[in-house]
Amino acid sequence: MKNKKGFTIVELLVSIIVLAVFLAMSLSIGRASLQRAKFTDAFNTFIADFYYARQLAAVQNKYVAFEFDPQGRFYTLRIQKGFNVNLASEDSFIDHKTVNPLYGEAFFDVKQGGNFAFNPMGVVRAFPVDVGMNAISVRIEFFKKHETTGNIDYKKTVWIYPSGGIKIEK
Length: 170
What we know:
By secondary structure, the protein is α+β, with helices and mostly antiparallel strands. Helices cover 31% and strands 29% of the residues.
Protein backbone atom coordinates (compact mmCIF):
# COMPACT_ATOMS: atom_id res chain seq x y z
CA MET A 1 0.00 0.00 0.00
CA LYS A 2 1.30 3.44 -0.92
CA ASN A 3 1.76 6.17 1.67
CA LYS A 4 -0.61 9.00 0.79
CA LYS A 5 0.48 12.48 1.76
CA GLY A 6 -2.01 15.02 3.06
CA PHE A 7 -4.32 15.74 5.97
CA THR A 8 -7.29 13.87 7.24
CA ILE A 9 -10.69 15.52 7.61
CA VAL A 10 -10.26 15.56 11.40
CA GLU A 11 -6.90 17.30 11.14
CA LEU A 12 -8.34 19.90 8.77
CA LEU A 13 -11.32 20.57 11.06
CA VAL A 14 -9.07 20.97 14.11
CA SER A 15 -6.86 23.40 12.18
CA ILE A 16 -9.87 25.44 11.05
CA ILE A 17 -11.24 25.58 14.61
CA VAL A 18 -7.88 26.70 16.01
CA LEU A 19 -7.60 29.40 13.33
CA ALA A 20 -11.16 30.57 14.06
CA VAL A 21 -10.38 30.89 17.79
CA PHE A 22 -7.23 32.93 17.06
CA LEU A 23 -9.15 35.14 14.65
CA ALA A 24 -11.91 35.77 17.20
CA MET A 25 -9.33 36.62 19.88
CA SER A 26 -7.44 39.01 17.59
CA LEU A 27 -10.67 40.79 16.60
CA SER A 28 -11.57 41.23 20.27
CA ILE A 29 -8.13 42.59 21.11
CA GLY A 30 -8.20 44.86 18.06
CA ARG A 31 -11.62 46.25 19.02
CA ALA A 32 -10.43 46.96 22.57
CA SER A 33 -7.33 48.72 21.24
CA LEU A 34 -9.46 50.83 18.91
CA GLN A 35 -11.78 51.84 21.77
CA ARG A 36 -8.83 52.82 23.96
CA ALA A 37 -7.33 54.81 21.08
CA LYS A 38 -10.62 56.68 20.57
CA PHE A 39 -10.77 57.54 24.28
CA THR A 40 -7.13 58.64 24.39
CA ASP A 41 -7.55 60.78 21.28
CA ALA A 42 -10.69 62.48 22.62
CA PHE A 43 -9.10 63.07 26.03
CA ASN A 44 -5.92 64.49 24.48
CA THR A 45 -8.05 66.79 22.33
CA PHE A 46 -9.62 68.27 25.47
CA ILE A 47 -6.22 68.73 27.14
CA ALA A 48 -4.86 70.45 24.01
CA ASP A 49 -7.94 72.70 23.90
CA PHE A 50 -7.47 73.52 27.59
CA TYR A 51 -3.92 74.80 26.98
CA TYR A 52 -4.97 76.49 23.75
CA ALA A 53 -7.79 78.38 25.52
CA ARG A 54 -5.48 79.49 28.32
CA GLN A 55 -2.92 80.75 25.80
CA LEU A 56 -5.60 82.41 23.64
CA ALA A 57 -6.90 84.31 26.67
CA ALA A 58 -3.41 85.59 27.45
CA VAL A 59 -2.49 86.51 23.88
CA GLN A 60 -5.78 88.26 23.06
CA ASN A 61 -6.15 89.77 26.55
CA LYS A 62 -9.75 88.47 26.71
CA TYR A 63 -11.76 85.86 28.56
CA VAL A 64 -12.03 82.46 26.89
CA ALA A 65 -14.78 80.14 28.12
CA PHE A 66 -15.52 76.42 28.06
CA GLU A 67 -19.23 75.74 27.74
CA PHE A 68 -20.17 72.08 28.21
CA ASP A 69 -23.10 70.19 26.74
CA PRO A 70 -25.25 68.96 29.68
CA GLN A 71 -25.31 65.43 28.18
CA GLY A 72 -21.50 65.35 27.99
CA ARG A 73 -21.32 64.99 24.22
CA PHE A 74 -19.50 68.17 23.16
CA TYR A 75 -18.02 71.43 24.44
CA THR A 76 -17.65 74.86 22.90
CA LEU A 77 -14.82 77.33 23.32
CA ARG A 78 -16.18 80.88 23.41
CA ILE A 79 -14.18 84.08 23.30
CA GLN A 80 -15.03 87.52 24.63
CA LYS A 81 -16.28 89.73 21.75
CA GLY A 82 -14.48 92.85 22.71
CA PHE A 83 -13.39 95.06 25.54
CA ASN A 84 -15.78 96.92 27.86
CA VAL A 85 -18.51 94.28 27.48
CA ASN A 86 -20.78 92.77 30.13
CA LEU A 87 -18.92 89.57 30.99
CA ALA A 88 -21.96 88.26 32.87
CA SER A 89 -23.88 88.11 29.58
CA GLU A 90 -23.36 85.10 27.31
CA ASP A 91 -24.10 87.46 24.41
CA SER A 92 -20.74 89.11 25.10
CA PHE A 93 -19.00 85.95 23.87
CA ILE A 94 -18.86 84.38 20.43
CA ASP A 95 -18.37 80.72 19.56
CA HIS A 96 -14.78 80.06 18.61
CA LYS A 97 -14.73 76.29 18.27
CA THR A 98 -17.10 73.40 19.05
CA VAL A 99 -15.58 69.99 19.71
CA ASN A 100 -17.50 66.71 19.49
CA PRO A 101 -14.74 64.23 20.34
CA LEU A 102 -16.71 60.96 20.13
CA TYR A 103 -19.21 62.04 17.49
CA GLY A 104 -22.30 62.28 19.67
CA GLU A 105 -21.36 59.71 22.27
CA ALA A 106 -21.31 60.88 25.91
CA PHE A 107 -17.69 61.45 26.92
CA PHE A 108 -17.55 63.58 30.08
CA ASP A 109 -19.43 64.56 33.20
CA VAL A 110 -18.69 67.89 34.87
CA LYS A 111 -18.79 66.97 38.55
CA GLN A 112 -17.84 70.31 40.07
CA GLY A 113 -17.71 73.87 38.83
CA GLY A 114 -19.56 73.65 35.52
CA ASN A 115 -18.86 76.01 32.66
CA PHE A 116 -15.77 78.12 33.24
CA ALA A 117 -13.64 80.83 31.66
CA PHE A 118 -10.00 81.85 31.79
CA ASN A 119 -9.14 85.47 32.24
CA PRO A 120 -5.97 86.81 30.54
CA MET A 121 -3.94 85.92 33.66
CA GLY A 122 -5.12 82.29 33.55
CA VAL A 123 -7.46 82.56 36.54
CA VAL A 124 -10.52 80.29 36.31
CA ARG A 125 -13.96 81.82 36.92
CA ALA A 126 -17.49 80.51 36.52
CA PHE A 127 -19.05 81.23 33.13
CA PRO A 128 -20.91 83.53 32.54
CA VAL A 129 -18.30 85.60 34.33
CA ASP A 130 -18.91 87.58 37.51
CA VAL A 131 -15.59 89.27 38.23
CA GLY A 132 -16.72 89.95 41.80
CA MET A 133 -16.87 86.22 42.55
CA ASN A 134 -13.93 84.10 43.67
CA ALA A 135 -12.05 81.90 41.25
CA ILE A 136 -13.32 78.32 41.09
CA SER A 137 -12.09 74.74 40.81
CA VAL A 138 -13.55 72.44 38.20
CA ARG A 139 -13.65 68.63 38.25
CA ILE A 140 -14.47 66.75 35.06
CA GLU A 141 -14.69 62.99 34.67
CA PHE A 142 -13.93 61.68 31.19
CA PHE A 143 -15.03 58.18 30.27
CA LYS A 144 -15.56 55.74 27.44
CA LYS A 145 -18.44 53.29 27.77
CA HIS A 146 -18.41 49.80 26.32
CA GLU A 147 -20.44 49.68 23.11
CA THR A 148 -22.68 46.78 24.14
CA THR A 149 -22.70 46.60 27.94
CA GLY A 150 -22.64 50.32 28.71
CA ASN A 151 -20.03 49.75 31.43
CA ILE A 152 -17.24 52.29 31.72
CA ASP A 153 -14.10 50.83 30.14
CA TYR A 154 -11.79 53.87 30.44
CA LYS A 155 -11.91 56.80 32.84
CA LYS A 156 -9.80 59.81 33.79
CA THR A 157 -10.53 62.74 36.09
CA VAL A 158 -9.26 66.25 35.46
CA TRP A 159 -9.00 68.87 38.18
CA ILE A 160 -8.71 72.46 37.01
CA TYR A 161 -7.54 74.73 39.79
CA PRO A 162 -8.47 78.41 40.33
CA SER A 163 -4.98 79.48 39.24
CA GLY A 164 -5.43 77.70 35.88
CA GLY A 165 -3.33 74.68 36.80
CA ILE A 166 -4.43 71.18 35.89
CA LYS A 167 -4.12 67.74 37.48
CA ILE A 168 -4.98 64.49 35.69
CA GLU A 169 -5.97 61.41 37.69
CA LYS A 170 -6.59 57.92 36.39
